[in-house]
Design goal:
By secondary structure, this protein is mainly beta. It is built from four helices and 14 strands.
Amino acid sequence: MILADKTIKKLITTWGLKVVPWEGQTLEHILDNTICASMDLQLWNEFKFFKHIPNHTLNPFDDDSKEITESITVADWEDIIIEPGAFLLAATKERFWIPANIVARVEGRSSLWRLWLIIHVTAGFIDPWFWRDHPSTITLEISNINHVPIVIRPWMRICQLAFDQMDTDAETPYNKKKSAKYNGQQSPQESKLFING
């Protein structure tokens, strides 16, 4: 069952769903961005681009993704230009803890998809109990499949988060999964497939 805006707001204000505002945000601002059946999320200031390295093969089973990514931090509302075919990692301003009986899904915004800017094609599913002790940002995989450059900037509404109620609490929530690799992330996080496949 998809949660309505009224239910999402109630969970946030009673700490049933923890959303930690970033500096410059308020809880009221987050509640204002919760409409219909989702919550709009805003773009953080740090980005990771994949560098072009001739003759380099990216092996997800080796820890080399950090070697070929370049971190860039920009000021609030400063433009980032995404060239055609470029891919980057980004993160949300908001940090989350998802309770044991709810899952969340990252969804793109229609207005950005109409520009052929992909925000999250795969891996948009957020498991229950992501992450109670250290509320975490959500890493976004952004790609420009248009034939012209596209501008994005920190604080823009970049995606939306929808929530589904589970029929019961998860028996093995995310923080207890043997393969949980992204607990407590506070910035765009490269792939950690090399840890346990």
